[in-house]
Amino acid sequence: MSDSHSTFIERFWEVIFQFLAKLSVFSVVRKVVNRFLPKRHQHLFVECWALGHLLL
Hints:
Oligomer: single chain
Helix content: 55-70%
Largest sheet: none
Structural class: mainly alpha
Shape: elongated
Order of helices and strands: HHH
């Protein structure tokens, strides 16, 4: 939210959700897995993650 008219509450929750996004299991696992995959195959982890949850 780069809008100059955003309220305190909007800025507060934006910061909270940005912080939580960095702590999510998906984000942490993706960073680890992407270190071992070539750049052109890094999208495969996201697809496998989504399909895995679909099958659950």
